[in-house]
Amino acid sequence: MIDTVIDVRKLGLTFETPDAPVVALQDIDLQIRRGEFVTFIGPSGCGKTTLMRIIADLEQPTSGTVTVNGVSPREARLKRAYGYIFQAAALYPWRNIQRNVELPHEIMGVSKRERAEKARRYLDLVGLKGFEKKFPFQLSGGMQQRASIARALSFDPDLLLMDEPFGALDEITRDRMNEELLRIWGETKKTVIFVTHSIDEAVLLSTRIVIMSARPGRIIDVIDSNLPAVRTLETRETPEAQELAHRIRLGLKAGHSYDEVK
Ligand SMILES: Nc1ncnc2c1ncn2[C@@H]1O[C@H](COP(=O)(O)OP(=O)(O)OP(=O)(O)O)[C@@H](O)[C@H]1O
């Protein structure tokens, strides 16, 4: 099994627009190993989503190379090598939660019994046991987001791409989701790439923090976390965590971007 899950070299993307070219990403070099939890943090517009979209084959770079598990993003996508979780839960309102999780398996021709079993197992993992028959509108935002996480996990991808998945949630729900995610990550040992605007969230979750600068988006610092592997919400209050948060703040400031970050 290849240990380097993501290998990004000299990556750049310039969008051609009617006014002027927009240099979204420049000279990005990044390697992510199996089992890491890597967070991208930086000001709005620095290219975090674009970088994630290139990894997911939703956008093509204009220079440089990317491999996912040793193959091109396109091949990785066709092999369903990753799960992609967006900021807003993308659930079908006319299907109950269980049938939302089942849908992609249904399209792939998985038997009714097998897909029902999968959906139940992953809904249970994200703490939604007992809510299988509810429709999205009957659930809170956090529960809907957990349902989309269950759907992404149900393929058992080794890699999870999470683009500000908890950005729209209130702080209490967000804390719960952070705990939930720490637990799932601890249990499943997946590689996670996570985008956030929150320094606290980056500190709590990551094994490595990638700080990006304002446009053109570049990596200005990569910080290894020295926090213990097993964490709770209280870990954020430890001196080590405070020190890490401070280092992230300094990194963002060095990129002249701190004022734009919450
Ligand atoms: N299709 C596109 N055409 C032109 N410019 C684009 C396109 N997509 C993104 N951009 C620009 O590229 C830059 C990076 O955008 P991106 O969405 O990746 O930033 P981000 O760091 O994820 O921002 P946020 O934190 O606000 O989500 C921005 O300046 C954006 O306006």
Automatic annotation (TrEMBL):
Q: Which InterPro entries does the protein's record reference?
A: AAA+_ATPase, ABC_transporter-like_ATP-bd, ABC_transporter-like_CS, ABC_transporter_ATP-bind, P-loop_NTPase
Q: List the Pfam families.
A: ABC_tran
The terms under GO molecular function for this entry are:
ATP binding
* SMART domains documented for this protein: AAA (SM00382)
> Can you give the residue ranges of the ABC transporter domain?
8-239
PROSITE patterns with a match to the protein in the record = ABC_TRANSPORTER_1, ABC_TRANSPORTER_2
Keywords associated with the record:
ATP-binding, Nucleotide-binding, Transport
Extract the Gene3D superfamilies matched here.
P-loop containing nucleotide triphosphate hydrolases (3.40.50.300)
Q: Which family does it belong to?
A: Belongs to the ABC transporter superfamily.
This protein is called what?
ABC transporter ATP-binding protein
Query: What species was this sequence derived from?
Result: Dongia rigui
